[in-house]
Amino acid sequence: MTETPESQETSQEEKKTEVESLQEQLSDYKDKYMRQLAEMENMRKRLQKERQEMTQYAMSNLIADFLSPIDHMENALKHTENNSDEVKHWALGFKMILNQFKDVLTSNNVKEMDSMGKAFDPNNHEAIEMIETDEYPPGTIVEECLKGFKIGDKIIRPARVKVAKAPAKSE
C-alpha cells in the first residue's frame, strides 16, 4: 500500500504537532523543575536563618540569666577596699573570676551600654526615677543604677537609669 502525498502531509503534520506538544510539555516540566529547585533553596535558607535565630535567642536568654549574678559580684567587690588583707586577697581572686565571666561575655559579642550623660531612649533604658536638676538638660541620664547589655543591636537587658527633669518653678 502506497501513501498518497496527501496522507504523507497529514502524517507529517501530526508528527509536527506531536513534537510541538512534547516540546511544550518539556518546557512546562523544566519550568516546574526550576521553580521547585528555587523553592527548595529558599526553604533551606529560611530554615538555616530560623535555626540561627533560635540559637541566638537561646544564647541571649542564657546570658541574661548570668548578668544578675555578675552584677551582684561587682557590687560585693566594691565594698572590699576597707577590709583586712585576707579579705582583699579573696576579693582579688573573685575579681579574676569576674573578669573571666566578662571575657566570656565579650567573646559572645555582648557589650555593655554606656548610658551616663546620654539622652533617655525608651528602647535602651528603663527609667526608675526622675530627678529635678539644673545640672543636666531634661531627658538626660544622670545616674545608671543597673547596666544595660546588648548583643549586636539586640537589647538583652535595658539599663535602669535616673533621668533629669527641669526643677519645678517656685512661685
Helix content: 55-70%
Number of helices: 2
The major pleated sheet works out as:
3 strands, antiparallel
User: What is the helix/strand order?
Assistant: HHEEEEEE
| Poorly predicted spans | none
Task: Report the end-to-end length measured between terminal Cα atoms.
Answer: 123 Å
Global outline: elongated
Spatial order of strands in the largest sheet: 1-4-5
Let me know the average pLDDT.
Answer: 90
User: Which structural class do you get from the secondary structure elements?
Assistant: alpha+beta
Strand content: 15-25%
SSE diagram, text form:
Elements: H1 5-78, H2 85-107, E1 110-113, E2 125-132, E3 141-146, E4 148-151, E5 154-157, E6 159-165
Parallel strand pairs: 2-6
Antiparallel strand pairs: 1-4, 3-6, 4-5
Helix pairs in contact: 1-2
Verbal overview:
- The chain is of the alpha+beta class and 171 residues long.
- The protein has two helices and six strands.
- The strands form two sheets. It has a three-stranded antiparallel β-sheet. It has a three-stranded mixed β-sheet with strand order 2-6-3, with no helix packed on it.
- Helix 1 runs antiparallel to helix 2.
- The radius of gyration is 35 Å and the shape is elongated.
- The relative contact order is 0.10.
